[in-house]
RNA sequence: GCCCGCGUGGUGGAAUGGUAGACACAGGAGACUUAAAAUCUCCAGGCCUUAGUGCCGUGCCGGUUCGAGUCCGGCCGCGGGUACCA
């Protein structure tokens, strides 16, 4: 009998699929279309287990849909712009383009053996001139519709390297290469007007029923709609009013001071006038630009000397402070602080000795405040300085009362604000899509003409490869690329040297897949046929930015005529898989030459003497469990080793089994071998069934078990319960192995087993199908349907509980009525004993489930 | 800091508010074999000098319920996001 040899089977059937071209997607009006998409990878050059898990899940869906009669689009590409390529060029020479395309070749080579049902003919990379040229065309169309504009924004600035840093390049407030303290600096940059769509992006979330609730909630919080009061504080020096926005106007009588952002116009004016203010503002601008850095950094304040009057009491003066934790981007960049009811204001007031005036009290509590009292808006509190007398109100009611009063008296108005800021897309980098505009001394900022697209990245500089060892953006110092003619007046002009955020690249690739070679960004007919993405699969780490930006882009593309109306929400269903995690191994004894932590690969370390050590040097290693697999942390497991040893089906089976798809999975090497053993066993069982002859017993029972397996495995596949499907397949395999049924019955059951396994282990299933005389390819054979009449059970076993604890069980006919079941239960030995002749207080009978006797 | 998620045996995990630990990994015992590998069968949450089907048990504390891993409140721990990583 032939043995299971994965390498032979897998190459044989991959070739068969390719020859039959069954995964090439062509529009077909006679079949329902199904577009399944996994988030495309960054071409790091190394396929890791997270990729394998992600693509295998998508492949299970795609293959199941193919078998259930759908016309499936299942494409793959690469999110190929971005900093790692430039970092690599800086670290070890070479060119980002060569590095990236080399990695893409490597990754395609690593992916092909997995046997994914991908339409490779549609593959592209976002760094293809063809792709980013179309992206430039989109940019120009957006510009024309007013969806793009320029304004100032802050970036992380490294004063030693004289370059902009990404947040990840800022470590503890210092530049990762230079070690210099990072500053916030303002540059003029391009922005997408995503904030115009705040309300729509928020309300449309309700329609995304097949998205995880947690992703919708995360986006809702991110968009951050709030209702509040906007009003002006009058300056005692006669200057222009300071407009503030507050979500808690009910605390206005507890106001202690007015705070403005260091980037507020008043602060900027003072900065120009006073060296002291300039020094303070400069201090505020030290540190990174991330929300986290600003929130967790030390709270700093500076009393400007400006005084304002309280809107409800002209004799009440409040000081105006510049505070480093106030963001210019949110609200009006100015607040009033009520330290009694805001923890941050409380700390600030305590530090700078400002008054703390309670507005309301906890109806249940007493004593002076030692920290801010911050009840939720739904909680009832007793107002002592509110707007509705001393009534007990919820915060919500208090806010409404305050807004009503302000509007009635005409000194303020209720407004809605959003946390969502416009999307800054400018990056001061080389390896990205050039922003297709020209700066002309006479005409200003001029869009490139579409016929001049693509504005391609220059590969050389004066005939030599671009030098990435010099700090700064190579495009900035590339005269022959930078110098151009104004598309408007024809005079000498200069190109924009900023490139686009890589999130732009990934915000429309799903649309490009529907017509990857079109000479416009999309082909509307193809988009109408294939869109929307029926099932999108990717990591939860993309829950906010990528998915929100794509939703915005789909709307912008609809407005500019590149997508149909129905594609405003481009992803009908979303599934967020968990991450594949793995322990990190940190060298505990030394750092690298730049003082940074050294991370070791799993293969480089060993466990001994109760510790973990580097094999070669014997250095001690700190083990940090369950961290996201990340290239920079060197905790990436190589799936190719498993494929080499056991074959792709084993790797696929293994990543789907055990862990539920939405949960993180900690990678451990053990288990892959066991998966392989199981697949070998399945192959052997199929081979035995194929060779079997004669009659047996229990054909009907095997048939019933087969149909149960069809029902349960199908349900698992349809609901992303792949681990549940696999558990059922184990069970069904055991049943088949032990069955005494006749040859014909066993062969039919084994064929069903091959079909049910085919989305997960497609090669093995083809081999089994072939062995058992199945017609054609199992990949295209119609998916089996469970016969309901075979699934009905005649009797059911009910547990009997006494006071909620299991004390026995009874087996009764499935349809026995409740009274009859109760009678039987009360006659049960354990119940009789427990009642000891008395009457039960209560008997609960849940048909088909349980009986609980309360004694 | 803020937002989101997760926490069940030695391990991965199962369980529409209804028998906690399905299915598997690692482990143990046995069968087959000259032997090994492979394969097959069985055992397996913890506790106890009472081995009962007894008590305890789903991160911790409390609540709702006839009944809570599941729902609610409060903690603790871990992970993700935090707008220039992708």
Automatic annotation (TrEMBL):
UniProt-listed GO biological process terms: leucyl-tRNA aminoacylation
HAMAP family documented for this protein: Leu_tRNA_synth_B
Organism: Tritonibacter multivorans
Span of domain Methionyl/Leucyl tRNA synthetase: 36-171
Residue span, Aminoacyl-tRNA synthetase class Ia domain: 421-582, 628-667
Entry-linked PROSITE patterns: AA_TRNA_LIGASE_I
Subcellular location: Cytoplasm
Residue ranges of the TM segments: none
Alphabetic keyword roster: Aminoacyl-tRNA synthetase, ATP-binding, Cytoplasm, Ligase, Nucleotide-binding, Protein biosynthesis
Protein name: Leucine--tRNA ligase
Pfam families assigned to the protein according to its UniProt record, in alphabetical order: Anticodon_1 (PF08264), tRNA-synt_1 (PF00133), tRNA-synt_1_2 (PF13603), tRNA-synt_1g (PF09334)
Binding site for ATP: 631
Tagged with keyword Cytoplasm: yes
Keyword Cell wall biogenesis/degradation: no
EC number per UniProt: 6.1.1.4
CDD domains the UniProt entry points to: Anticodon_Ia_Leu_BEm (cd07958), LeuRS_core (cd00812)
Motif ('HIGH' region): 41-51
GO MF annotation, one: leucine-tRNA ligase activity
Predominant localisation class: cytoplasm
């Amino acid at each position: 009998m032939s043995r299971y040899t994965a390498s032979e089977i897998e190459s044989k059937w991959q070739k068969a699929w390719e020859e039959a071209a069954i995964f090439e997607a062509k529009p077909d009006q006679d079949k329902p279309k199904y577009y399944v998409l996994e988030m495309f990878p960054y071409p790091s050059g190394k396929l890791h287990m997270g990729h394998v898990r992600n693509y295998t899940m998508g492949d299970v869906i795609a293959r199941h849909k193919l078998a259930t009669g759908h016309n499936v689009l299942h494409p793959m590409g690469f999110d190929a712009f971005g900093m790692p390529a430039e970092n690599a060029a800086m670290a070890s020479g070479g060119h980002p383009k060569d590095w990236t395309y080399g990695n893409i070749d490597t990754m395609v080579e690593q992916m092909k053996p997995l046997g994914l049902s991908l339409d490779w003919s549609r593959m592209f990379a976002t760094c293809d001139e063809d792709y980013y040229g179309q992206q430039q065309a989109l940019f120009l169309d957006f510009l024309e519709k007013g969806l793009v504009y320029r304004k100032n924004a802050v970036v992380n600035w490294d004063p030693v390297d004289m370059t902009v840093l990404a947040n990840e390049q800022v470590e503890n407030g210092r530049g990762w290469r230079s070690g210099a303290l990072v500053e916030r600096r303002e540059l003029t940059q391009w922005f997408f007007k995503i904030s115009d769509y705040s309300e729509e992006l928020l309300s449309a979330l309700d329609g995304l029923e097949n998205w995880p609730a947690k992703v919708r909630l995360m986006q809702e919080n991110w968009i951050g709609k709030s209702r509040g009061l906007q009003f002006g504080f009058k300056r005692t020096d006669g200057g222009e009013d300071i407009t503030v926005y507050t979500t808690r106007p009910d605390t206005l009588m507890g106001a202690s001071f007015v705070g403005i952002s260091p980037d507020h116009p008043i602060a900027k004016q003072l900065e120009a006038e006073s060296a002291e203010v300039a020094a303070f503002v400069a201090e505020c601008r030290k540190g990174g630009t991330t929300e986290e850095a600003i929130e967790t950094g030390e709270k700093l304040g500076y009393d400007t000397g400006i005084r304002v009057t309280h809107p409800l009491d002209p004799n009440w003066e409040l000081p105006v402070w510049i505070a480093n934790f106030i963001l210019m981007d949110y609200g009006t960049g100015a607040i009033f602080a009520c330290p009694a009811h805001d923890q941050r204001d409380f700390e600030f007031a305590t530090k700078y000795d400002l008054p703390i005036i309670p507005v309301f009290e906890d109806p249940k509590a007493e004593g002076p405040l030692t920290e801010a009292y911050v009840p939720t808006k739904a909680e009832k509190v007793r107002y002592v300085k509110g707007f509705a007398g001393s009534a007990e109100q919820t915060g919500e009611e208090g806010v409404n009362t305050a807004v009503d009063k302000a509007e009635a008296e005409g000194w303020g108005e209720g407004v809605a604000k959003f946390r969502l800021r416009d999307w800054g897309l400018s990056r001061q980098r080389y390896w990205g899509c050039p922003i297709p505009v020209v700066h002309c001394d006479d005409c200003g900022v001029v869009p490139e003409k579409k016929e001049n697209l693509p504005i391609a990245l220059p590969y050389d500089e004066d005939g030599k490869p671009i030098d990435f060892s010099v700090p700064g953006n190579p495009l900035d110092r590339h005269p022959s690329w930078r110098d151009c003619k104004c598309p408007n007046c024809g005079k000498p002009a200069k190109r924009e040297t900023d490139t686009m955020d890589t999130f732009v690249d990934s915000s429309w690739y799903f649309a490009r897949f529907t017509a990857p070679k079109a000479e416009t960004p999309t082909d509307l007919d193809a988009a109408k046929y294939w869109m929307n993405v029926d099932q999108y699969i990717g990591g939860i780490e993309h829950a906010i930015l990528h998915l929100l930006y794509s939703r915005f882009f789909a709307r912008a593309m609809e407005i500019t005529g590149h997508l149909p109306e129905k594609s405003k929400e481009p992803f009908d269903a979303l599934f967020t898989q968990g991450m594949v995690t793995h322990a990190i191994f940190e060298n505990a004894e030394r750092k690298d030459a730049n003082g940074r932590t050294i991370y070791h690969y799993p293969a480089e370390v060993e466990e001994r003497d109760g510790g973990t050590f580097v094999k070669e040097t014997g250095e001690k290693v700190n083990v940090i469990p369950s961290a996201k697999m990340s290239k920079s942390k060197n905790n990436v497991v190589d799936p190719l080793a498993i494929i080499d040893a056991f074959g792709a089906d084993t790797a696929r089976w293994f990543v789907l089994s055990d862990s539920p798809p939405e949960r993180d999975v900690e990678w451990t090497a053990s288990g892959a071998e066991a998966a392989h053993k199981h697949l070998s066993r399945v192959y052997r069982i199929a081979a035995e069934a194929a060779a079997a002859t004669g009659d047996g017993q229990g054909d009907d029972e095997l048939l019933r078990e087969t149909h149960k397996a069809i029902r349960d495995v199908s349900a698992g596949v349809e609901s992303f319960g792949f681990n549940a499907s696999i558990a059922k397949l184990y069970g069904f395999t055991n049943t088949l192995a032990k069955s005494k049924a006749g040859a014909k019955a066993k062969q039919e059951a084994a064929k069903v087993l091959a079909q049910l396994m085919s989305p997960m282990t497609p090669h093995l299933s083809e081999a089994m199908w072939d062995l058992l005389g199945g017609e054609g390819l199992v990949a295209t054979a119609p998916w089996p349907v469970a016969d309901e009449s075979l699934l009905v059970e005649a009797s059911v076993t009910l547990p009997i509980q006494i006071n909620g604890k299991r004390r026995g069980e009874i087996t009764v006919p499935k349809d026995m009525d409740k009274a009859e079941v109760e009678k039987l239960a009360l006659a049960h030995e354990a119940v009789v004993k427990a009642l000891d002749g008395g009457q039960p207080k209560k008997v609960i009978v849940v048909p088909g489930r349980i009986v609980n006797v309360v004694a």
